[in-house]
């Protein structure tokens, strides 16, 4: 059967081997067959033929170049959300991360911004190009979060925004004539800024992260960590980790999504170190003849990228250098997938095409024009 189909397809298979010979070949082959790739199912495995067993160079590795070229041409999108009270250094940190002015600093807020009574989301996009690789970076700021006397439900507009982006993507996917590349406005990462109080998580932190941790990847950071001594920083970090665990808050990278042992070792190190105590700046200073990003104080210069001074470099490595693609994958494969399944089940139950989006708390979605965007 297999050969017939193969011949029909014009594949060049070896003629069948007589029974005795076949046994010998099988025995030989058994030595050659190695552990199947973890990603292949049992029915897929045919044994692995490695480079040394090939008759000559095939050129499979060139697929990496092809992928690279395609990605470079098309570019990619990365959407990062920053949440925390005003003045915690959110805009400064995003600018430090991407070494450019991608987020407006709020040191001179205008009157309207000062009296804003609601959390109101602003998204700004920039194309960043480095060594021929283009990235469309969207920074979603959440001014007004945690700034009121009564901060009850201030996470709602944020939950709504995150879900709206999933909904947009889902609608595009369900379109009969869907685009080849669906524009991706989903939040790939939410950096949550904790004030460097040196105490514990506040109720607003717990409430926010507990809710949002279920729908988006959260990376908590200790803002303006230059205000803590080394001992205070260590203790505060420990206490936050305990609080996160005690409250069942899920932050990125989550254990259950580690793909293999190598991933686990790398991510365990990150988990042991979370939340990163960071310092941001938009100024460069001369230190030993080198230009470094830093904050100049009366008693010296805090070098932002120096791991002996603060943990900014760990955060940058996580968000950009080691886990950017994983953040996008987790968003697509876990958070968006959960949303998609829930929405499709809802509409199947209702017998509708796609029922109107409802928020977690059951309030009906308002029209786009009415939203805070
Ligand atoms: N000490 C200290 N000040 C900072 C840090 N990051 C930003 N700032 C300052 O805090 C103020 C508010 O920063 P901004 O980025 O506008 O905060 P946002 O309102 O959270 O976006 C500015 O004067 C910044 O220069 C930091 O890491 N340490
Ligand atoms: Mg700001």
TrEMBL record:
Question: Do you know which CDD domains this protein is assigned to?
Answer: CDC_Septin (cd01850)
Question: GO cellular component terms?
Answer: cytoskeleton
Q: An example of a Gene Ontology BP annotation on this entry?
A: cell division
* Membrane-spanning ranges: none
InterPro entries xref list: G_SEPTIN_dom, P-loop_NTPase, Septin
Q: Does the keyword Cell division apply?
A: yes
Q: Where in the cell is it found?
A: Cytoplasm, Cytoskeleton
Where's it mainly located?
A: cytoplasm
Gene3D superfamilies for this protein? P-loop containing nucleotide triphosphate hydrolases (3.40.50.300)
Which part of the chain is the Septin-type G domain?
74-346
User: Which one Pfam family would you cite for this protein?
Assistant: Septin
* Highest taxon, organism lineage: Eukaryota
Q: What is the name of this protein?
A: Septin
Q: Write down the species.
A: Danio rerio
């Amino acid at each position: 059967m297999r050969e017939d189909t193969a011949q029909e397809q014009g594949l060049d298979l070896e003629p069948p081997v007589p029974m005795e010979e076949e046994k010998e070949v099988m025995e030989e082959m058994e030595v050659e067959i190695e552990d199947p790739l973890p990603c292949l199912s049992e029915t897929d495995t045919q044994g692995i033929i490695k480079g040394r067993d090939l008759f000559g160079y095939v050129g499979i590795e060139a697929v990496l170049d092809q992928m690279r070229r395609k990605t470079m041409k098309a570019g990619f999108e990365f959407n990062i959300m920053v949440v925390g009270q005003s003045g915690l250094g959110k805009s400064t940190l995003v600018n430090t991360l991407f070494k450019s002015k991608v987020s407006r600093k709020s040191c001179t807020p205008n009157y309207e911004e000062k009296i804003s009574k609601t959390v109101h989301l602003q998204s700004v996009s920039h194309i960043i190009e480095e060594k021929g690789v283009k990235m469309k970076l969207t920074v979603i700021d959440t001014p007004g979060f945690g700034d009121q006397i009564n901060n009850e439900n201030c996470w709602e507009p944020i939950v709504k925004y995150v879900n709206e982006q999933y909904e947009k993507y889902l609608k595009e996917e369900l379109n009969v004539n869907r685009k080849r590349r669906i524009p991706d406005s989903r939040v790939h990462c939410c950096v949550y800024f904790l004030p460097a109080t040196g105490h514990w998580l506040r109720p607003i932190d717990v409430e926010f992260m507990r809710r949002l941790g279920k729908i988006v990847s959260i990376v908590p950071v200790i803002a303006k960590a230059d205000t803590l001594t080394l001992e205070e920083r260590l203790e505060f970090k420990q206490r936050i980790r305990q609080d996160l665990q005690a409250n069942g808050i899920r932050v990125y990278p989550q254990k259950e999504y580690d793909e293999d042992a190598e991933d686990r070792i790398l991510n365990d190190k990150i988990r042991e170190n979370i939340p990163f105590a960071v310092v941001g700046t938009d100024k460069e200073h001369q230190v030993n003849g080198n230009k470094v990003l830093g904050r100049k104080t009366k008693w010296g210069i805090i070098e932002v990228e120096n791991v002996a001074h603060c943990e900014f470099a760990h955060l940058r490595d996580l968000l950009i250098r080691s886990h950017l693609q994983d953040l996008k994958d987790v968003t697509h494969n876990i958070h968006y997938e959960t949303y998609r399944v829930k929405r499709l089940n809802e509409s199947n139950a209702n017998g509708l095409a796609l029922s109107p989006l409802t928020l977690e708390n059951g309030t009906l979605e308002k029209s786009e024009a009415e939203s805070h965007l």
